Amino acid sequence: MALKIVKGSIDRMFDKNLQDLVRGIRNHKEDEAKYISTCIDEIKQELKQDNIAVKANAVCKLTYLQMLGYDVSWAAFNIVEVMSSSKFTYKRIGYLAASQCFHESTDVIMLTTNQIRKDLSSPNQYDTGVALTGLSCFVTPDLARDLANDIMTLMSHTKPYIRKKAVLIMYKVFLKYPESLRPAFPRLKEKLEDPDPGVQSAAVNVICELARRNPKNYLSLAPLFFKLMTSSTNNWVLIKIIKLFGALTPLEPRLGKKLIEPLTNLIHSTSAMSLLYECVNTVIAVLISLSSGMPNHSASIQLCVQKLRILIEDSDQNLKYLGLLAMSKILKTHPKSVQSHKDLILQCLDDKDESIRLRALDLLYGMVSKKNLMEIVKKLMLHVDKAEGTTYRDELLTKIIDICSQSNYQYITNFEWYISILVELTRLEGTRHGHLIASQMLDVAIRVKAIRAFAVAQMATLLDNAHLLTGNMQRNGICEVLYAAAWICGEFSEHLENPMQTLEAMLRPKVATLPGHIQAVYVQNAAKLFATVLKSQEGNTDSTAAQETSQLMIDRLPLFVQSANLEVQERASCILQLVKYIQKLQQKDVEIAEEVNALFAGELNPVAPKAQKKVPVPEGLDLDAWINEPPSESESEDEQPKAIFAKEEPKHSRPRHTEVDEKELARRREARKQEQANNPFYIKASPSSQKVYQDTPGVEHIPVVQIDLSVPLKVPGLPMSDQYVKLEEERRQKERAEKKKKEKKKRKEKRSGRGKKHDSGPESEEDITPAHQVDIVTEEMPENALPSDDDDKDPNDPHKALDIDLDNLVEAAGRRPLADSEKLPVRSHRETPKSPAEDGDTENAALQEPKKKSTKEKREKKKDKDRDRKKSKEEKKKKKHKHEEKEEDLLGGQADAPVVQSEETSEVVAPPTSTNPEVSDLDFWLSNAPVPSNTQEATTVAEAEAAPPPEAASGTAPDSEPDQPQDADTEEAKSSKHKKKKQKKEKEEKEKKKKKKHHHHHHHSDGGGEESVQNGTVEEEEPLPPMSNYCLLAENSYIKMVYDIQGNLQDGSQVVVSVIFENKGDSFLKSMEFNVLDSLNSKLQRPDGSGPHDGLTVPFQLPPGVSNEARFVFTVQSIIMPQKLKGTLTFIVKNEDSSTHEKLDFKLHFTCTSYLITTPCYSDAFAKLLESGDLKGSSVRLEGVNMPFHHLLARICFHHHFSVVERIDSCASMYSRSIQGHHVCLLVKTSGQTVSIDAKCDEPTLLGNVLDEIKQTFSQC
Amino acid sequence: MIKAILIFNNHGKPRLSKFYEHYTEDTEQQIIRETFHLVSKRDENVCNFLEGGMLIGGSDYKLIYRHYATLYFVFCVDSSESELGILDLIQVKVFVETLDKCFENVCELDLIFHVDKVHNILAEMVMGGMVLETNMNEIITQVDAQNKMEKSEAGIAGAPARAVSAVKNMNLPEMPRNINIGDISIKVPNLPSFK
């Protein structure tokens, strides 16, 4: 065996490895391709061998060849083989190769599912890591679906290295398998607060990516991110969060207000340019979302602009670039603040760096005004002349056009100037943007009527000098402008000074070298010109001139008839025949100019580019339905090709075709008319053009940009050119225009011919337009056009599928939890029956158990554990969240509008049965105007002022231990205390309400099911019975006290006793004093200066039926024994007529449990702890426990402050820590009704007492 | 998101290409060529950002690059990445310095002959187009741990192969290590370190 290995490796030495391959390629520079092909042959041989090392080596070489551009997909199967090697070395090679060349259509990918799953659950973290890395590159929808659950489990892996990778890859999984988002989201959210910065950063990364595409779903996370932002020190994380806020603020302006201050602080304080820059960017986004009119933010704008100016003036080109980039964002909303830096920006135009010049150009766009447009463009034109690279010149050209044409030519005062600029731009050599100039020319000529004469003159010159433009036409996009020139000259030929000359220019033989579509326009417009020329010549009574013109046409057109371009050919031959016919008529001295002109009468109006799309689909029209029965398969296969070949002479077949269909067509036309008549969206032709004044519904609703335009366009099936109207008249004389429209429609109905049409008499009189008025005609949109702008969205965008509402998920219990169908697919597996031996195992062995178990079970178990942990965290978070709000409430509410504040408070405190707590939470969070960034500190200060010392002490301490349910309560108590101080009668009602809720909140006596889960393991299928840690302290006819004790992690000698006082009678209770007889071990903390036997005043009064909570801090020396303290509560009972002094004695029972603090523990740390040998064991058996195991665990967790470390079937390990740092570990096993608890602790007395208490808990139920 | 990470030399020869989206081999080569053309004609002392080429992305994408001696490091990123952040990622704390540590004075030849190792380092830094780790020490720790594992796996069986390759390397006249990236430690002026 060993010999074989050695032999194998000796063989291997002489194989080429990657280095040899690279070296070989470098030594064969001349015949590289040949050398590589021999190498590939070798590789193929190597892949055929059995030795995995040889294969891996071959795959490694293939990966290199792939980088050089060789297709290696043929080796996909071998790559999978190498991936599944058990050795990490080879596995890594395999996964690398796979990540480089696998993709969705690689078919062997489906073979990898199980292998990847195995690697994901490998005990070696690097196997898992390598699998995750590879998977991130080639994950497919199938893989994502099958592995989503495994990856989700890994998100709670003990190793941060795996956690961060698992978190990050979830984004890819979401993209491929959007259904996984909802189930995975709570855990993802939880990872935002992971102790490991890398994991946290990964989670932020993923959520930012998600939120960038669908920001509104993540708005509810804003408070959490806000907290991260104010606490994190990792610049990467900060940048991501700040960028995320930039995406969120447009949706929620209030968020912006909240952000401004912390961001401004960051801007002032940070030294990292990257962070500074992103802050500025987000502040800009905030300012944009707040829009203008907020005077107090002008300071922020100034700050931004000023910081940006510093960046732009920096010698570092990168900063200059980014400064300009950010500046362009400000420009959109606050152009004024940017315009003052015009000098700087114009200076950047001269920068040697092209990227910077381009950015500066962007800025210019927003800086122009009517005044400076010409000046700026002049400067740009100079740059155009100087520019070297064509890209930059092209960019300049487009920018000039953009700047001039922006907002509907708003800044152009002189269109003659603009036309000349356009003409000047045509002199540019080698530009790709000929079509852009052309479309501008067309646009201006069509829309600005007054400029037509000038434009036509310029275009005629262009046509005359066409040879200048077409010098090296093949490479030259500029000849596109000839398209525009020809069309403008033809269409507006009445403005031509010398139409004959232009006509000649258009028919020059050189034209035949132009691209086909331009020639076609030439031919068509030559015909238009011809009509114009005829008209002028016929008036002259000199018929020979007209005939000569016809002759010119007849001489020149045959050149185009021979064109290879069908369009040109067809048009030319039509026109040629027409002209020949005209010539015949001319020879008979017939006046035909009028009729020829009629061919091209009518005007064309601009139509919005999206007009066609915006036409709503009429009701009842199914565009996907077949109009005719679909041809059968065989038909299309057999007959169609034949038909194509049979129709060798289309001229013959075409008439025959129409003949056949003539009747059918008539019938269809009739049907269509019927349909149109019934169709509310169809613009009907009125029988007479005179009769149209009334009924013009919908005209007002047409979403035209500025001018009230009323032409419904683009009725499906008809060419749009038919529907043009004179817009100008329409604007001035709407009714007449409408009439005309109807006429047109009628015409359009009658003939579906293309292009131009006859213009009837009435229009010519309206042709008179005011001479030099510059009218910018807007583009037309169809009636009922949909206002939405969603047509820009790509339907294939994978992020669309991720637009999933996550809010109600986040709020966990109660509302719309995950449906069964939404759970991630889990591989079902066979339950291995548990061996009886295992049951009786010693504790240590049982704790090692997980490692022995099959991977499947392990996964299962982990999932349970995760779920538990997730639940408890969720709960914690909720608490924390509220806690925060409270603090803010205190601050915000104090100063102004206390009533409103208290209202909001009660809303937040309400259990999540209210309609939409998450949203209202967010609202609440947002409703607090600017908050000092350091909330914690401020609160403490405020507290110290407001509250008596004991409270202050308890308030400052527990911040970092938010999983104590009492935390929120402290705050609540405080806030209510606060309000008490105000002593406002009208508030009492609200408070009462609030306190009731609050009461339930802790007692769960009314079966508030969703609140019952505090800390424990909850299986979704079975709700836990409500639980409460509060137990009765004392009770009489006036008052009832219940209490709970919690340790304080910050100070190992302190415990906090929360007592809820409930007024049971109908009297008013006041001047309550709480006193305890201190023991040697435990003392009540009293304010400085008071004696050791003084009582503590309870900081509130109790109206009838109200309860409230107060907290008292005790110092304890030793915590290993439970103890009892005697105490007294004295209070005054006040009725309407009398008041009496009452007292109530009680005994405070400090259990050992109350010194324990729920502390999460990872299983590896747990295992280490047990192995350390410092712990002493003890055990207890509980008989007759009749409850589900998870309930049992939940109880231990809840009542005794433990957390579950791991759970396997009916066995669980749990952990807790005392306030003085003792570790307490439990192994809980159940079989039947017997529960055995093996426990270990470094303090046996404490352990014994805790176990006794646990036993007691279960004996009670 | 990072769409692609490319390393090529002054002649446009690819030294590492990592695409986080699928392209065919031909398109990949075209992208590398196009990127090289865009990047190589820029002077030193101009900004390190470029609007994305035609093939890769379009307007939402940017090329962020750095030029070291004979090599260009190019990241193609979309707008969710911080420009300066990525720039720092390439140099100040992370990528190039990690390479420098792992290869001990990295030079182009290291990248030529050990492209697989570069991939492994990169995998610890960027995963699936998202930045995974920005802490250089953490990256080096993980890379070292994996290399150690590889060595232990090779064990005795790997020894002869290593010996052979050492011998092979010895007769290599072209293995001078004089193409060091000299300016690697020079920080960008006025750009305070990122982390």
Automatic annotation (TrEMBL), chain A:
Q: What is the membrane topology here?
A: Peripheral membrane protein
Does the record bear Repeat in its keywords?
Answer: yes
Keyword Acetylation in the entry? The reply is yes
Q: Which Pfam families match?
A: Adaptin_N, AP3D1, Mu_AP3
Question: Where does this protein chiefly localize?
Answer: cytoplasm
Q: Name one GO cellular component term.
A: Golgi membrane
Q: What is this protein called?
A: AP-3 complex subunit delta-1
Query: Lineage of this protein's species?
Result: Eukaryota, Metazoa, Chordata, Craniata, Vertebrata
Automatic annotation (TrEMBL), chain B:
Give the record's membrane topology: Peripheral membrane protein
Question: Where do the TM regions start and end?
Answer: none
Q: Does the record bear Signal in its keywords?
A: no
Where in or outside the cell? Cytoplasmic vesicle membrane; Golgi apparatus
Q: Which GO cellular component terms are attached?
A: AP-3 adaptor complex; cytoplasmic vesicle membrane; Golgi apparatus
What is the top-level taxon of the source organism?
Answer: Eukaryota
InterPro entries to which the protein is assigned, alphabetical:
AP_complex_ssu, AP_mu_sigma_su, APS3, Clathrin_sm-chain_CS, Longin-like_dom_sf
Keyword list, A-Z: Cytoplasmic vesicle, Golgi apparatus, Membrane, Protein transport, Transport
User: Sorted alphabetically, which PROSITE patterns does this protein's record hold?
Assistant: CLAT_ADAPTOR_S
Read off the Pfam families from this record. Clat_adaptor_s (PF01217)
Q: Name one GO biological process term.
A: Golgi to vacuole transport
Keyword GTP-binding assigned: no
Q: Where is the AP complex mu/sigma subunit domain?
A: 1-149
- Chief localization: membrane
Functional note:
Part of the AP-3 complex, an adaptor-related complex which is not clathrin-associated. The complex is associated with the Golgi region as well as more peripheral structures. It facilitates the budding of vesicles from the Golgi membrane and may be directly involved in trafficking to lysosomes. In concert with the BLOC-1 complex, AP-3 is required to target cargos into vesicles assembled at cell bodies for delivery into neurites and nerve terminals.
UniProt xrefs under PANTHER family? ADAPTOR COMPLEXES SMALL SUBUNIT FAMILY (PTHR11753)
Family of the protein in this entry: Belongs to the adaptor complexes small subunit family.
- Protein name from the UniProt record: AP complex mu/sigma subunit domain-containing protein
